[in-house]
Write a structure and sequence with these properties.
The complex is a heterodimer of chains A (204) and B (855). Chain A is globular, with a radius of gyration of 22 Å. Helix content of chain A is 36%, strand content 24%. Chain A has 7 helices and 6 strands; from the N terminus they run βαββαβααβαβαα. In chain A, strands 2-3-1-4-5-6 form a 6-stranded mixed sheet, with helices on both faces. Chain B has a 6-stranded mixed sheet with strand order 12-13-11-10-22-21. Chain B has a 5-stranded mixed sheet with strand order 14-15-16-19-20. The longest helix of chain B is centred in the middle third of the chain and has 21 residues. Chain B is elongated and about 145 Å long. Classes of the chains: A alpha/beta (204), B alpha+beta (855). Strand 2 of chain A pairs antiparallel with strand 31 of chain B, so a sheet runs across the interface. Chain B: It comes from Drosophila arizonae (Fruit fly). Chain B: Keywords: Cytoplasmic vesicle, Endosome.
Chain lengths: 204, 855
């Protein structure tokens, strides 16, 4: 009964240390809400959110992963098939930032080669507790040629923008393949008018 | 129908011993207080191979004043609660509602379709026998539904707005963004004025270059520059000639298009959107240049009439497109000629109307009548048919005269009888008949035939929000025997206010996403951690946990196979069930069994050596179909035992293994230095010592997969504690334990020289390799051989049998390339070591072994 209500489906993945705010980021993006109680994600949750980009309805299926270390081996098996990965650290947690390198290595080993990546420094509203400067975040992103943004799920800073930018990057990649099929919005059916004229010809 | 009359009321129900709810009352529970379930009908659907049992309920809302059919699937039979019913479709009984029975249906498959709101029909089937006595039969169902529709729609018609179906939104899935957007159209739709200029001219086979004069009086009238031009020409060229030379014909057409484009309104730039031609009938659409980008889905087609209905000397051509949110269609037709052929003209019209189709994306097609705004122009050829004997009125330029003549206009007559152009409108005609003139003059036919003047050339329209501004004939263009005609319209085009639309779309998408996220199947588990506590070798332990479904739909779950080991769990765990379905509000328990036995201990020890957390026995992935995955951690602390540990590890212990913690054992296992506390593991020594003193055939057979004897665990504890107590089991148990001790370590006793030893030709040859084994292994091997040798010598053991059993264990190869004669070669190898050939070796070995045995 349910008909397809979108043009494209992108699968995105949120990864990063436990407690950096992956679930909050997703909750802010999908439900525009925030809760400060920490409930550790024990498994893989997903939510969908449809956005419109360049006139296309894009359904984002966003997978939220358990950040706890003991689940790492299991969560890596979910990397395959993801078209975009959000790698999240917490600007008030040095360790979570240092682990970015480890997460990047995980992505290299387990994700599709052409996966779009983005690093998010979350909790940027908590400036008094900041231990990782924005410059360091930018530097590591530059070093790996990855997009970077500081976000706050609590203060709703850059959340929507981050997802849309990641989706757009994926769209750029996919539209390259697709553009031949659909060159423009307007399609004039020349073929049909030829039929009308050739019709009188063939009756001669 | 009153609810009370349909099912037992409260008094009746309480009279029964067990008050059983009727199906109707269960269905009623799904609705609000002012909504009444009038009847239920049992109907099922077929999806793929599956029958989906269902119920259709006819429901009305007092506040909405409307009826609807709600389609339920029945999740559980017999029905006991309202949440066993799932709404799968809602059919408002509105003007577009249809209940149709399929005439092609066979007798056994009784079926019908329900259809509403321009959706595809949904097919339902029903059984000839009712299972619920309160359900109605098909005839009653149809009759009642049709009565409802009649009372709502055929009586004094309240407008659609007065009847509201909004109460149904609570029951409808917003699966469809399109549907939602359509519903909220009024919030973002505005109407924009567009000037449409329609023009038609029968050019009487005159090439346009004969026409030196301007076409402006015909095409550039009106104050405001039009947005869209639809210009129809007829008799572009004599049909016979046109067919002979298609290329030339196309050239004529191109010339005409160019000529017309040059003569459009000056104030605006235009471009050709599309032309379509059928023989001499051509329709060209010009649009304002900056309007072009707002036009999509442009399609053309033609319907040929005339000779044999195929020649195309008569017929119609049409262009269809969408401008903003409005669909527009333009038709140019040349219908059958001559005074008497009214019926033929009507036929031509009907054929064009019926057969003109525009392709859509997908299997659907648009017809002319599927458009919001339709303009039909052309040489329709209807004549003025005055009653016999009536004199033609005087001068032709007088408006009153036109009015008199138009009384006898065939087109108006036919339209008034609805024999053609049903639903079309034509504006007031205040111009002279456009046919037939002597070419080059304004004089009516003075030729032989003296054809009566007629309004052959017309422009009609159909659709909402169209206002005609001008309708005129053009006398000063004299190249043809027809005068050109034009009509100017102001059309209010449905247009999207982009800002408002984006806002509505965002809201709709959000609501649809929310619905989808909220309806995600979910189960909850009463624990995420299954704790086994201390787990001992060969002692099964069981833990149960519960999963429950508290979402409003059936949920299927399964444990996911993990890539790493091709199964849902590790070898030492067993999960039952591996998959199941949970009905609404139901729960079930899942049993996890842990057993660290001969088949799994090596794997477990290996995992303990590498794992971060030695207590995590496994992580199960509980997967909900179309939903999330839950990780269930299984923990337990393995109590180390000598079984499964290597001889080297056992030689590093300074106290019984049972007194070591798992962490300490892990350290021992990871230690690779060749430093040993004893020459051979005490556990081997104790067992062999005991067995040495027993008589009889003890080694009959060995299979690692066999369950162990009942005394085994006592023997395990005896060994793990280096007990001084008498051996707690039978000699058979001791034999069993010895074989397991030898067999379980990851590396076979004679590794890493298994291949070399199998290839060796003599005992001496083999001994060179034996000497290279680690001390614990070499000592165990020698001591074992000595023991077996004595047993054989005493006649307790059959040499061949013992060689087979031990050979396979000691020479167990981790490699897969086992040769065909592997077993016989194992046997052969062992025999060399357990048969007495050389008394010196035996006595030497015996001395060592004997000394040990007597310690």
């Amino acid at each position: 009964m349910a008909k397809k209500t979108y043009d494209l489906l992108f699968k995105l993945l949120l990864i990063g240390d436990s407690g950096v705010g992956k679930t909050c980021i997703l909750f802010r993006f999908s439900d525009d809400a925030f809760t400060s109680t920490f409930i550790s994600t024990i498994g893989i949750d997903f939510k969908i959110k449809t956005v419109e980009l360049r006139g296309k309805k894009i359904k984002l299926q966003i997978w939220d992963t358990a950040g706890q270390e003991r689940f790492h081996t299991i969560t890596t098996s979910y990397y395959r098939g993801a078209m975009g990965i959000m790698l999240v650290y917490d600007i008030t947690n040095e360790k979570s930032f240092e682990n970015i390198v480890k997460w990047l290595r995980n992505i290299d080993e387990h994700a599709n080669e052409d996966v779009e990546k983005m690093i998010l420094g979350n909790k940027c509203d908590m400036s008094d507790k900041r231990v990782v400067s924005k410059e360091r975040g930018e530097a590591i992103a530059r070093e790996h040629s990855i997009r970077f943004m500081e976000t706050s799920a609590k203060a709703n800073i850059n959340i929507e923008r981050a997802f849309c930018e990641l989706a757009e990057a994926i769209l750029d990649k996919t539209s390259g393949r697709e553009s031949a099929e659909n060159p423009e919005r307007v399609v004039i059916d020349r073929g049909n008018s030829d039929k009308a004229t050739s019709y009188s010809k063939c009756c001669a | 129908m009153e609810r009370g009359s349909n099912y037992p009321n409260g008094a009746d129900a309480s009279a029964a011993a067990v008050p059983v709810k009727t199906t109707l009352s269960i269905v009623q529970e799904r609705f609000k207080a002012d909504e009444t379930v009038h009847l239920i009908f049992e109907a099922y659907q077929i999806k793929g191979q599956e029958h989906i049992e269902g119920l259709l309920a006819l429901v009305s809302s007092a506040s909405g004043g409307t009826y609807a059919i709600i389609s339920f699937s029945v999740l559980r039979t017999p029905l006991t609660a309202s949440n066993d019913l799932k709404i799968n479709k809602v059919f408002p009984i509105n003007a577009s509602f249809k209940l149709t029975t399929d005439s092609k249906a066979s007798k056994t498959e009784q079926q019908f379709d329900l259809c509403t709101d321009d959706d595809r029909p949904t097919k339902y089937y029903y059984y000839s026998m009712r299972t619920d006595p309160l359900a109605v039969d098909f005839n009653e169902f149809c009759a009642k539904v049709n009565t409802c529709k009649k009372t709502m729609w055929d009586a004094e018609l309240p407008s659609e707005a007065a009847l509201n179906f909004r109460w149904l939104d609570d029951y409808r899935e917003i699966g469809e963004v399109k549907h939602e957007l359509k519903k909220r159209e009024s919030e973002y739709i505005i109407y924009k004025d567009v000037i449409v200029y329609c023009a038609t001219w029968n050019v009487n086979n005159k090439p346009c270059w004969d026409n030196k004069n301007t076409l402006r009086p015909w095409l550039a009238s009106g104050k405001r520059a039009p947005d869209i031009y639809a210009i129809g020409l007829q008799e572009l060229e004599n049909t016979a000639r046109a067919m002979l030379n298609g290329n030339q014909m196309q050239m004529f057409a191109t010339q005409w298009v160019r000529k017309m484009l040059e003569n459009l309104h000056d104030d605006m730039e235009y471009e050709e959107l599309q032309s379509v031609r059928l023989s001499g009938i051509m329709l060209t659409i010009f649009v304002r240049k900056n309007l072009r980008q707002h036009i999509v889905r442009c399609r053309v087609n033609s319907v040929a009439r005339g000779v044999f209905n195929t020649l195309g000397n008569k017929g119609g051509v049409a262009v269809s497109f969408q401008l903003n949110e409005a669909s527009m269609c333009f038709v140019n037709s040349h219908l059958a000629a001559h005074m008497g052929n009214v019926a033929e003209r009507n036929e031509d019209y009907k054929a064009i109307d019926d057969y003109m189709r525009f392709e859509e994306n997908g299997p659907q097609v648009r017809t002319i009548n599927d458009h919001d705004h339709i303009f039909w122009l052309g040489d329709l050829n209807y004549r003025i048919q005055e009653p016999n004997g009536q004199q033609r009125p005087g001068p032709m330029s007088d408006a009153q005269t036109f009015e008199l003549m138009l009384q006898y206009d065939q087109l108006r007559t036919e339209m008034s009888y609805e024999r053609c152009f049903k639903g079309y409108t034509e504006g007031e005609i205040k111009f002279a008949p456009t046919y037939k003139y002597d070419v080059g003059t304004d004089t009516y036919d003075t030729g032989e035939k003296q054809r009566a003047p007629a309004y052959c050339d017309r422009v009609l329209w159909k659709g909402k929000l169209i206002e005609q501004l001008e309708y005129n004939g053009v006398m000063e263009i004299r190249e043809s025997d027809h005068k050109p005609v034009y009509a100017i319209f102001r059309v209010k085009i449905k247009t999207r206010d982009d800002d408002k639309y984006r806002k509505v779309l965002a809201e709709v998408l959000k609501a649809v996403d929310k619905r989808e996220n909220d309806s995600q199947p979910q189960i909850t588990t009463d624990r995420l951690n299954i704790e086994f506590g201390v787990v001992r070798f060969n002692e099964p332990a069981i833990r149960d946990f519960n999963v429950s479904n508290d979402c409003p739909q059936q949920v299927d779950f399964k444990f996911k196979v993990k890539d790493s080991h091709n199964d849902i769990c590790e070898k030492w765990l067993h999960v039952d069930p591996r998959a199941d379905s949970l009905m609404i509000d139901s729960a079930r328990s899942i049993r996890v069994r842990a057993l660290i036995d001969a088949n799994s201990v090596t794997g477990l020890l290996k995992m303990i050596c590498t794992a971060v957390d030695k207590c995590v026995l496994d992580i199960l992935i509980l997967h909900v179909r179309s939903g999330r995955d839950i990780f269930i951690t299984v923990t337990g602390e393995y109590q180390p035992s000598c079984f499964g540990l290597s001889m080297e590890t056992l030689c590093r212990t300074e106290r019984p293994i049972g007194e070591y913690t798992l962490d300490e054992v892990k350290q021992l296992m990871l230690d690779v230095t060749p430093v040993y506390r004893v020459p051979m593991p005490r556990e081997y020594f104790l067992l062999i010592d005991y067995l040495h003193n027993q008589r009889g055939q003890l080694f009959q057979s060995y299979d690692r997969r066999q369950p162990l004897s009942s005394q085994f665990n006592a023997v395990r504890d005896w060994l793990d504690s280096w007990s001084n107590d008498p051996f707690p089991g039978t000699p058979q148990t001791a034999a069993e334990a010895l074989l397991l001790l030898l067999d379980l370590p990851e590396q076979a006793l004679l590794e890493p020289f298994v291949d070399d030893l199998l290839a060796s030709r003599s005992k001496a040859d083999a001994e060179r390799y034996i000497d290279l084994l680690s001390d614990p292994k070499r000592n165990v091997f020698k001591h074992l051989c000595l023991f077996l040798c004595e047993g054989v010598e005493r006649g307790d053991y059959d040499a061949n049998n013992v060689a087979t059993i031990f050979g396979r264990i000691l020479l167990r190869s981790s490699k897969c390339n086992v040769t065909i004669d592997y077993h016989s070669r194992c046997n052969e190898f062992m025999q060399r070591f357990i048969r007495i050939e050389n008394p010196d070796t035996v006595s030497g070995g015996n001395g060592h072994g004997g000394a040990s045995l007597q310690t």
